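Open question from group meeting: does this chain pack into something compact, or does most of it stay loose? Before anyone orders reagents, we agreed to write out a predicted structure and look at it together. Recording both the input and the output here so the notebook holds the full record.
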Amino acid sequence: MRKLRCFPFGVSGNSWIFWRVSWAVVLLMVVGAAELPAQDLMESLGPRFAPGVLTTIAPALEHQDTVTVRDIVELRARDDLARPPFKNTSSRTLYEMAQAVDFRRDLWCLEFSFKPLRMLYVDVPQSTGKMQRKLIWYVVYRVRNTGIGLGPAVQPDGTFKTVERESKLLQFVPQFLLTSQDRDRDGKPVRKTYLDRIIPSAIDPIARRELPRGTLLNSVQITEAKLVPTGAAGGVWGVATWSDVDPEIDFFSILVGGLTNAYQWQDPPGAYQPGVAPGSGRRLRHKQLQLNFWRPGDAYAEDEREIRWGPAPGKAAYYGAGEGVAYQWIYR
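Structure tokens returned:
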């Protein structure tokens, strides 16, 4: 009769082979991970969510945002420049060339991803030294530099063409504004706005709930992050928080600024007068992302499960959007 080979600790032959193979696989995984670049390794270990939990909005890169056609009002307001030329044609005078000038610029935009808007009770320190329990509205988000931008390129004939241009290093300086879209009985807008507030005591409870494997930054900390181009799983995580939100708000939007450098400006007629500082009276508008929400609940027993993303059915006009438009890029 053939004798069975004995192994220490009571492990049979088949089990011993299984454990040796398992340890070999683990060793290969560790060695393989060590050979990955630091960024790829970080992304491979990053947070993972079930389908539909994280909503991603692609960067808004539009060619028309790379150029603005405006008069140079500082020159067009000078009557002494509006005189017949001595040698050149009228179209070559400084006064005429200052009309309808193309102002071209590079354009970049970050990818924005966010988890559902939620609520959490947190003890917040007061100026009296005591703690007060408050309901915090918050949204956890991620910003990512895709590395793709737009910019003007001079053609051989002297004209310009918009081409793709790499955005190597970007910075996100966020502005989060929660604004109501409610109407009164007469149909007039009832605006209530809330700026994102930094609530230190809320960061850790939110991180434990939403991102236990990652680092969650507030709106000041995230401005220090250097956003280099990364893959689909890269980026930086942040959180926007609001307190003392009116519980009777039913329709509202979150405006996110700082995602792009796209802007527009207007020089109202007569706003600039000779002798004043250049640009006086000019109105600037920046491109922002508007996320639309509604909640069918009332002021009692506020529940995050009642919050819906997108405009309420039949109320799209409240948001200045079309029916079913959950988000839009606006200038304001």
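Observations to bring back to the group:
Residues 50-331 form one domain.
Residues 46 and 233 are 7 Å apart (CA to CA).
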